[in-house]
């Protein structure tokens, strides 16, 4: 049988959620107050068929990986380490957050997810999760995957999608 078309597998499960606190900063001098969302995640992996298994990627493995990635940031305060308006510092068991030099929050360190993003918008969270998935897939030897598409939903019917072609990195 010929397989001229392309394949994509997608996973969207009730347990692919993370309930997390965050706040974003806006252009100028405006910063949201702390609040939370029940984020949901949906992922699509495109690629070539595994020549022995005839699948793009094992669903069981993909679900397990995505659940682990969600668990990493579930029930955490999401903090954007690369935000130029925020000064985030670890002090013993605490994380202090200042906005434009003014002290704003102190959190227990174990309750924080310090993320390498410029803002905790759902766009940036989708990109972050894509990067995490990309590195796990590489470690697990998923050679056939060509594209990852990650959708993060912040509120019902309000989502952002990030799409990354793999193998385009230098
Ligand atoms: Zn929000």
Protein traits:
single chain, alpha+beta, elongated, 170 residues, 5-stranded antiparallel sheet
Question: What is this structure's SSE topology?
Answer:
Blueprint: E1 7-11, E2 17-22, E3 25-26, E4 30-31, E5 35-47, H1 59-73, E6 77-80, E7 86-91, E8 94-99, E9 102-108, E10 112-115, H2 122-139, E11 145-155, E12 158-165
Parallel strand pairs: 6-10
Antiparallel strand pairs: 1-5, 2-5, 3-4, 5-11, 7-8, 8-9, 11-12
Bound molecules: zinc ion.
The site of zinc ion has 3 residues, from β5.
Could you walk me through the main structural features you see in this protein, from its secondary elements to its overall organization?
With 170 residues, the chain is α+β, with helices and mostly antiparallel strands. 19% of the residues lie in helices and 44% in strands. It has two helices and twelve strands; from the N terminus they run E-E-E-E-E-H-E-E-E-E-E-H-E-E. Strands 1, 2, 5, 11 and 12 form a five-stranded antiparallel β-sheet that branches. A three-stranded antiparallel β-sheet has the order 7-8-9, with no helix packed on it. It has a two-stranded antiparallel sheet with strand order 3-4. It is elongated and about 65 Å long. The model has no long low-confidence stretch (mean pLDDT 94). The site of zinc ion (ZN) has 3 residues, from strand 5.
């Amino acid at each position: 049988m010929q397989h001229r078309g392309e394949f994509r597998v997608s996973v969207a499960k009730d347990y692919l959620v993370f309930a997390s606190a965050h706040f974003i900063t806006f252009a100028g001098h405006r910063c949201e107050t702390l609040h939370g969302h029940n984020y949901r995640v949906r992922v699509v992996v495109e690629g070539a068929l595994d020549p022995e298994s005839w699948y793009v990627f094992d669903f069981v493995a993909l679900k397990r990986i995505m659940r682990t990635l969600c668990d990493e940031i579930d029930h955490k305060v999401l903090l954007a380490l690369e935000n130029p308006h925020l000064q985030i510092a670890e002090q013993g068991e605490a994380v202090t957050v200042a906005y434009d030099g003014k002290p704003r929050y102190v959190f227990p360190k174990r309750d924080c997810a310090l993320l390498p993003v410029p803002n905790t918008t759902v766009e940036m969270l989708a990109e972050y999760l894509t990067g995490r998935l990309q590195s796990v897939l590489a470690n697990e030897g998923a050679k056939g995957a060509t594209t990852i598409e990650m959708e993060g939903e912040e509120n019902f019917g309000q989502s952002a999608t990030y799409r990354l072609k793999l193998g385009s990195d230098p």
